[in-house]
Amino acid sequence: MYELLKKIDGPDDVKKLSQDELKLLANEMREALFNRLTKIGGHFGPNFGMVEATIAMHYVFNSPKDKFVFDVSHQSYPHKMLTGRRNGYIDDEHFLEDSGYTNPDESEHDFFNVGHTSTSIALALGLAKARDLKHDNENVIAVIGDGSLSGGEAMEALNVAGDMDSNFIIVVNDNEMAIAENHGGMYENLKELRISNGKSSNNIFKAYGLDYIYEEDGNDISKMIEVFKKVKDCKHPIVVHIHTQKGKGYELAEKNKENWHWTMPFDRETGKPTFDFGNVKSYTEMTVDFIMDKAKKDKDFFVITPAMPGAIGLSREQRLELKDQYLDVGIAEEAAVAIASGAAKNGAKPLLVTNMTFIQRSYDQISQDLCINNNPVTMVMNYSSFDGLTDVTHLGIFGLSVFTNIPNLVVLAPTSAEEYLNMLEWSTNQRQHPVMILIPGNEVSHRSADVDFSDINKFKMEQKGEKTAIIALGDFYQRGEELAKEINAKFGYTPTLINPRFASGLDEEMLEELKKEHSLVITLEDGIIEGGFGQKIASYYGTSDMKVKNYGLKKEFYDRYNPEELLKELEMTTSQIIDSLR
Amino acid sequence: MYELLKKIDGPDDVKKLSQDELKLLANEMREALFNRLTKIGGHFGPNFGMVEATIAMHYVFNSPKDKFVFDVSHQSYPHKMLTGRRNGYIDDEHFLEDSGYTNPDESEHDFFNVGHTSTSIALALGLAKARDLKHDNENVIAVIGDGSLSGGEAMEALNVAGDMDSNFIIVVNDNEMAIAENHGGMYENLKELRISNGKSSNNIFKAYGLDYIYEEDGNDISKMIEVFKKVKDCKHPIVVHIHTQKGKGYELAEKNKENWHWTMPFDRETGKPTFDFGNVKSYTEMTVDFIMDKAKKDKDFFVITPAMPGAIGLSREQRLELKDQYLDVGIAEEAAVAIASGAAKNGAKPLLVTNMTFIQRSYDQISQDLCINNNPVTMVMNYSSFDGLTDVTHLGIFGLSVFTNIPNLVVLAPTSAEEYLNMLEWSTNQRQHPVMILIPGNEVSHRSADVDFSDINKFKMEQKGEKTAIIALGDFYQRGEELAKEINAKFGYTPTLINPRFASGLDEEMLEELKKEHSLVITLEDGIIEGGFGQKIASYYGTSDMKVKNYGLKKEFYDRYNPEELLKELEMTTSQIIDSLR
Predict the structure, then answer these.
(1) Chain B CB within 8 Å of residue A72 CB
(2) What family does the Swiss-Prot or TrEMBL record give for this protein (chains A, B) (predicted)?
(3) What is the per-residue pLDDT across A147-170, written as a single tens digit (0 to 9) for each?
(4) A472 at the B interface (CB within 8 A)?
(5) Are A151 and B152 an interchain contact pair (Cβ–Cβ within 8 Å)?
(6) Which residue among A202, A355, A396, B344 is least crowded, i.e. fewest CB within 10 A of its CB?
């Protein structure tokens, strides 16, 4: 087991192997991928597809002098195995040493910590620019999947690359998929290029001024070595368009590429997940039910997503059922927001769906294209919580600081299933406001909730008490409830408990009212404190006698943390807050 | 004078004119443009180039049923003249009724209030999507300049458009320029298309799956009418690539397109501005001097800009002199940040230059590509102030709320020429932090300043006093000084005056120290209060006895305001603050 792989301490050891041994190495690497992915999950399809190309890259180029930049870097596991990090795959005790993305802290063969799409060409262009200023001569190689090409940042960089006159190699790994199926006119062109074996005169890369070479057998090591040898030390920018099979080497994944883009721990024989999700209906399932029902009832309603139907688990069958009430624009967060704004302007009712970390890319479009124009778009953001995605590149904890400070945008933070669904219904029917709704990151709660949210910034006092008022936002409401109970139990009085519902503004009337019988306001929010919800309240009470204590995360790039541990570190568990109140 | 134009109350009146009259109308419209622009300034080249095409659009299509969406909309003056708003051009008393951009509040012929680039295709796609859902049948026409095509949002939308199968018309107004010269591989392709009269088989639009038609004489009304008639009611997406002359009809502007993209009020005979800038050396001039000097001394240093050398007034001659130490990536804020990050990672010292309002587009790249990776890039942002650009689409007042909440990013707010230059020097030499420097928006001040800022978040106490501490950030420091003097004069004690220098963190030691002899902290900042600098201080003192009063702008989309009047409205002039202290 892993006989060859165990001898690979770095790229030099790859270069020593014969062509036959390289093929055996590929098999061992797939076994190593199975070992890790069946046990702790991760990106499946992208890594299984890139085994051969990665071996060839390390065989031909001299990393780290020659520099590889992987897009999203969810396909970089094979690269990691070949650059001294095989133990993260073959030795269970070392799994957690390797992140799921490239990481300069792990290895000199990694140049960037990335996780968002469409960045590799631009980042690599920067490496090349510095190389040229220094009159160095290494190869710089950007690797990007076909799905990521539709992102604005990638195309901006293609255009800049077209102006270069020094070494720059862009490996386009075409597996005919984004996470889900690709969307957009360029994918017809990629298909033409594949069919014509790269000969089609209609060629998007050449249109950007780039040289171009095609290799159909992206999973054939010898052919990949040949093609990389051709372009090595090339003195101008060139695209190496390779055709690979996503999920290659696992029949289930080859057949259902979307489901096997990323996987939870699973059983290799059956492909089934190896743990039980339980029977609780999740917030995402509710969202899907809402969508399917709403679409039937209201023909002006449609779902729009930048390649993230999976953010709420909208299946391929459901998408087909929605027909023209579903629009996947491909990886293109900026265009998604602008299109939604335009559609709302012309009378449609768009519901935009993705993860909080990805919508960050459209800050400017949300501000300018949407909110200046005040069009009624509803944006539903999954993973808006500290508890969910904990990779530094996928944190949802910045959303409050980014989006609650945009004028006109109504940011809603529901505290229960009922409130979430009522907010969805209200928002998709109203015609006055752009709205962002944060899907709770905690377990599904049930409480009765209002149905009308048109009284913007009206907080809800759930429990009227005295001395201390707890304002607990969104999915931290249950923490507020718990704290209120503990205060009662420990200090013998009933504090006031408020569900603000609106994260983007203050209920000044209620805040004034609180001054009468309260001397302390505690705010709880699921995000960094800086720029978020609680600081607005601290500022509001700044010149009064009211004391304000803001609880939330620190402005920091946390990485792969244990959520409960983090709360302890931040001294914001209920018992710690009680202690500090003493 | 304006005989024909005075009869145009809307597009129907355009349709009544003969071809000869349409030509006379074009002449009158140019006169009207001169009338407005010589007197109050505005976008020159884009409007002079689009007169004929706009007449033809209104002649052929039926606005507002057929819907025009203009990119940036800095070329929409002719459209405004033909849609009931001629008085904004021919009658000086009505100039201020019209904004410099499209505006739905002005007319039903405008659909969006826009000012940033590269948005028109996506916004128009939204209109078309809603049309299709409603089974309506109007034409939707996006107009975009060649310069704006390089922006990611535009290319994302081209890709989405390629998937459509209903009416969608993209007019690419190719005048061979962005504000400055174009940059990027696609511009070679546009040139090929122009030279081949649209016949080149290498065609970026076709590569995106779009139908395509070329018209060389974009300034010939008859030909433009012909081409628009051809595409009207087309049932699939099509690009109408037209070649126009930027600044057509004014020799000076035809010869120097960059300088005449936008103009201050000027004398028509000489082209000279009609008011005196004075002799004070501006912050932008200092920046240019710094750059030219630094580039000579340090070969790792380079300037990178997303098509905005004009943000600091870097001339064509200076750009040429900088050679490979200058990189204009075209309109591509996202790629610009990522390229700068990559270059810094590989040892270069990039200085990124643009306006605050435009860098908003790269929030995600600054957070992910740059700050997670903590690469030493310096970003210099002009118009980071409430006093400067006052169009709602170009406000610099959101920068503090957007960028001070990103971990690792050091946001520096200088208070004088000396401090600004020292910060530039320090930042471009250090290798530890991504840094954003806000160019002051007030008159140039001179004060001695530190040269080392490596003690991150170390505030500077400029005057030690008692009772009240004024923390005055960046270009509001001088307001803080004035307030300190007035407090002394009116209340007979010396307040403490602090220049925080760092907008992105707190000097907790100093804040603790203040508790001893102060009961009130006043913060002053040049931006919205929400999410900005002062609220961090209010939160810090939340549970202490210190009172905190935050002064700044409200979270609001202000539009074309008088800066001094706005401060009065916000009750934050020095005398108003003094009154509130009584």
Answers:
(1) no
(2) Belongs to the transketolase family. DXPS subfamily.
(3) 999 999 999 999 999 999 999 999
(4) no
(5) yes
(6) A202
Q: Please check whether residue A488 is in contact with residue A495, taking contact to mean a CB–CB distance below 8 angstroms.
A: yes
B407 close contact with A: CB closer than 8 A: yes
Query: Using CA atoms, how far apart are residues A505 and B352, in angstroms rounded to an integer?
Result: 34
pLDDT tens by residue, B298-342: 999 999 999 999 999 999 999 999 999 999 999 999 999 999 999
Q: Which of A365, A405, A542 sits opposite B530 (nearest CB)?
A: A405
Q: Where in chain A is the domain with CATH 3.40.50.970?
A: 5-263, 284-438
Are the C-beta atoms of residues B427 and B412 closer than 8 Å to each other?
yes
The count of C-alpha atoms lying within 13 angstroms of the C-alpha of A169, restricted to the half-sphere facing its C-beta, is 27
How many whole angstroms separate alpha carbon B77 and alpha carbon B70? Answer: 11
CA-based nearest distance A555→chain B, Å: 5
Backbone phi, psi, residue B338, to 5°: -65, -40
CA distance A354 to chain B (A): 15
The three-state secondary structure class of A113 is coil
Per DSSP, the residues of B96-132 read GGS-SS--TTT-TT------SSS-HHHHHHHHHHHHH
Cβ-Cβ contacts under 8 Å, A364 against chain B: 116, 360-361, 363
Which of A111, A186, A393 shows the shortest C-beta gap to B162?
A186
Distance in angstroms (rounded) separating the CA atoms of residues B353 and B283: 13
Q: What is the pLDDT of residue A279?
A: 62
Angstroms from A210 CA to nearest CA on chain B: 7
pLDDT at B277: 62
Interface membership of B354 toward A (CB under 8 Å):
no
CA distance B272 to chain A (A): 34
Could you give the residue range(s) of every CATH 3.40.50.920 domain in chain B?
460-581
B204 to chain A, any CB pair closer than 8 A? The answer is yes
- In CATH, the number for domain A284-438 is 3.40.50.970
Q: Which fold has domain B5-263?
A: Rossmann fold (3.40.50)
What is the distance between the alpha carbons of residues A400 and B54, in angstroms, rounded to a whole number? 43
CB contact under 8 A, A372 and B393: yes
- DSSP run (H or E) holding A80: helix A77-81
**CA neighbor of A393 nearest in space, from A358, A442, A359, A437:** A358
**Spatial CA neighbour of B370 closest among B357, B356, B352:** B352
- Asked if the C-beta of B105 comes within 8 angstroms of chain A's C-beta atoms, the answer is no
Q: Do B339 and A123 touch (CB under 8 A)?
A: yes
Intervals of CATH 3.40.50.970 along chain B: 5-263, 283-438
Q: Determine the distance in angstroms separating the CA of B432 from the nearest CA of chain A, rounded to an integer.
A: 15
Q: Does A278 touch chain B (CB under 8 A)?
A: no
Closest-CA distance, A401 to chain B, in angstroms, reads 7
Contact at CB, B302 and A129, closer than 8 angstroms: yes
Report yes or no: B245 at the A interface, CB cutoff 8 Å. Answer: no
| B460-581 is classed CATH 3.40.50.920 | yes
Residue ranges of chain A with pLDDT lower than 70? 276-280
Main-chain dihedrals φ then ψ at residue A90, nearest 5 degrees: -100, -10
Report chain A residues whose CB lies below 8 A from the CB of B542.
538, 541, 547-550
User: In the prediction, which pLDDT does B114 show?
Assistant: 97
Contacts of B109 in chain A (CB under 8 A): none
Q: How far apart are CA A246 and CA A253, in angstroms?
A: 8
Q: What is the pLDDT of residue A394?
A: 97
- What stretches in chain B show pLDDT beneath 70? 276-280
Q: Give phi and psi for B208, each to the nearest 5.
A: -90, 5
Top CATH class, B283-438? alpha beta
Structure tokens at B462: 């400029």
Q: What are A249-274's pLDDT values in tens digits?
A: 999 999 999 999 999 999 999 999 99
